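Fold this complex.
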Amino acid sequence: MIDTSSEIDPCARCEEALQPYLDRELTKAEMAEAERHLDSCTYCRRRYRFEETLRRYVRQAATEEMPPDLKQKLAALRTPL
Ligand SMILES: [Zn+2]
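Structure:
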């Protein structure tokens, strides 16, 4: 799933792993690799945390009606990174 052979920069690989990571679809080795990178990279750590938060909101929105101001807040969160 994750291409480990190429020499693309670690952040790009980390980003590739983000969705499967949150979906718990990574192998143990891939998971460990992603976490190792997160330990040393503030940028990716912020990305992962943001996506996690976003998913929580989205899950919530699936069961509740999302208030318009929350939608706006999420839209505003989309860009800062
Ligand atoms: Zn990174």
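Residues 42-63 form the longest helix (22 residues).
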